[in-house]
Amino acid sequence: MNDLSNRPETPDLIDIRDVDKTFGNGTVAVRDMSLGIKQGEFVSFLGPSGCGKSTALKMIAGLLSVSGGKITVNGHPAGQSSDGNDIGFVFQEATLMPWANVYENVYLPLKLHGLSKSEARERVEEALSMVGLANFAKSYPRELSGGMRMRVSIARAMVTRPKLLLMDEPFAALDEMTRAKLNDEVLALWEKHGLTVIFVTHSVFESVYLSSRVVVMAARPGRVVHDIPLSGGYPRNAAYRMTTEYTETCQRVSNALEGTMTNVDLNH
Ligand SMILES: Nc1ncnc2c1ncn2[C@@H]1O[C@H](COP(=O)(O)OP(=O)(O)OP(=O)(O)O)[C@@H](O)[C@H]1O
């Protein structure tokens, strides 16, 4: 697994400090969120619908502004990285261009950075190999299964060789077996490339299987209520799902999540 043993000494890669987000219609999506995330962590944001998970992720990516507080990524204000390639983002939907083949979809971020097709070829091929789609470069999205489309989406996020991968419920629409397989593939990418991953999910099982740390959020207003380190069990594989450690951890995280349902402030 990524080396987290030096966590206390190293500075945070992501520093979320006293962050609030209120939308124009008055909805308080996130209140007073403070969190430090170190290089190499695999952090899940887990919580009920509407607790601000996606909003928090988009603020880290700089896709949404904060209303108060501050987020820095690698020392730069969110969205103002010195190198725009530092972050890869994977959405719940694969959001591929239907008229373009797999190769062209994965090439897009590099094209937007001004790389010609020949300059980009090595990286596109590398990203396609990472997700096992080297032989599908010429296929169109309509010819692929949901799991394969999501792999293309992951390849497109990885093609810029980011250090930080942000994933917003990427596997929620997939069947259980495909989801489990993609969970393993994301863990393998994380370990092989020393990534830092923030993964938004509703699923206790998914968060416990993947993460070195689960941040449990509650709604109304959206906020962090538990921060649970889970560094055991790596490298995790199907056998880990059968261990007592895994089932006990799922129970513990599930209890924390359940607590968020009874702890709702109806004034927000
Ligand atoms: N653009 C927006 N304008 C107004 N309100 C918004 C906007 N985006 C999100 N919200 C509200 O902010 C709150 C948090 O939304 P967010 O999507 O971050 O939650 P979430 O935890 O990711 O939910 P889910 O798990 O259902 O995706 C919700 O009440 C949502 O309705």
From TrEMBL:
Entries under Pfam families matching the protein: ABC_tran
UniProt keyword list: ATP-binding, Nucleotide-binding, Transport
Highest taxon in the source lineage: Bacteria
All copies of domain ABC transporter, residue ranges: 14-244
Gene Ontology MF, one: ATP binding
Gene3D superfamilies found in the cross-reference section: P-loop containing nucleotide triphosphate hydrolases
SMART domains (alphabetical): AAA
InterPro entries documented for this protein: AAA+_ATPase, ABC_transporter-like_ATP-bd, ABC_transporter-like_CS, ABC_transporter_ATP-bind, P-loop_NTPase
Family, per entry: Belongs to the ABC transporter superfamily.
The name this protein goes by in its record: ABC transporter nucleotide binding/ATPase protein
